Please model this.
Amino acid sequence: MLTETMRSDSEEALARLRAHIARAGYGVGDRLPPERQLTETLGMSRVVLRRALDSLERDGVIWRHVGKGTFVASAPGDGGGDNAVSALARRMTPTQMMRARACIEPALAREAAINASGDAITRMRVEMDRARTAGTWRDYESQDDRFHRAIAAAGENALLLALFDQLSQVRRAVAGGRSERKTAQPSDAHPSFAEHEAIVDAIADRAHEAAEAAMREHLRRVADRLFT
Model:
């Protein structure tokens, strides 16, 4: 868990990275310099830089391709995009949001089973394990986002990943912290853990139909837990 000092450092690094991307004039599709060059340019450690890159990736500002580099997906701090997400979120109910996820994410799991590299599967397992050890519900939800995004990224399709990122932005706006929690953190028996494992196992086995079905079942159960 991040301390207050670490969180402050991370927020400052994120702001500096966003400003650098905007100031340097990178456009959508442009590749950012290697991490070593960015650490020198921005005057920060690689650990801090990677936290900032992770945050921009979750927000859909960048996307990363193993072996090729980090690319700009959208302009950082684009107020128009934020307004569009907010406007769309106001027109969505939580039930409609889950139906949208059920239409898109099973197909992304299928694509991951077909196209995922070994590194991509390893990343899924890392994010899954981090979700299991989350110390708070907020940490779990952040890690759950990363897990689902790792699956979307594993499909090796920039357009599908961009669609997932927009879906996630709307989902976070619709959810808005409405879930009421009876415990401080997920229990060891939280059902999503086993459901996540089933999805990753199917992807690792290249069983695309099973991966699609496992994701669909996971989302169905998530909806049941939210709405019943």
Observations:
- The chain has a mean pLDDT of 86.
- Strands lie at 62-65, 69-72.
- The first strand starts at residue 62 and ends at 65.
